[in-house]
Amino acid sequence: MGIIKERMKQDMEIRGLSENTQEAYLNCIKQFVKYFMTSPDQLTLEDIHTYQVFLIRDRKVAGNTFNQHISALKFLYGVTLKQKLNFTLIPFHKRSIKLPVVLSREEVVELYKAVSYLKHKAMILTLYSTGIRVSELLHLKVADIDSKRMQIRIEQGKGRKDRYVRLSEKLLEKLRLYWSSEKRKPKTWLFPGYRDIAPLCSSSVEKMVQKARENACIQKHVTPHTMRHSCATHMLEAGEDLRKIQLMLGHRSLRTTAKYLHVASNYIATTNNTLDTLDLD
After folding, report:
1. What's the whole-model pTM score?
2. pLDDT value of residue 199
3. Which CATH number fits domain 105-268: 1.10.10.60, 3.40.50.10860, 1.10.443.10, 1.20.210.10?
């Protein structure tokens, strides 16, 4: 398996797959091999079908997780092992449509006030103000903050694409306050981990947000990504153009951004309710 793993990693690097995708695919294949305890080049299409059933019935994985496993298997057999399998017999799971959890503006303030460390406050505000992903937040560099043009450079975000987002006056003020409060000034990474050698890990941000949610007594399921959803929804409710929101979030398709129409309160409130047209008296 070691040779196959290395070749698959090389194939993914050649095709420019992100580090996160590479890690996820390799982890999926590791689980696949562990299930059969056999080298994947010795397994058949029927074995893959058996594994699909196992994922659904026994592990009860979510649709997105299931599809990630299938994408990894198709890459392994189609690209690395160059096996001419009938991939139509290795179907993806139908994706369920789930609307994002969105905080109210008041809840965003409560979450912000629930943390005391200025670094954590700055991180929450950056996530909410810019709508960036947590991976993009962690890879922000001090040099990415352009206070003259009032922009933040997002370098090699999802899909390996660069983009710029607006830097608000309030966020700039809070970032400067955070920076000046640090004994060890951030030099490379805006939110560094240990000794500025590397950025913080995503699990640290997850734990910080969960702690803030608990302290703020917010009942909703809140993650760092919730700030992205809340940012986009609040912009839409404020009358911002959907296309501008798409560019800011870095969505490839406008259809992805359009999901916020389903949770924006102003769009829901202006929808006529048929019950209100009935004379019940």
Report:
1. 0.73
2. 85
3. 1.10.443.10
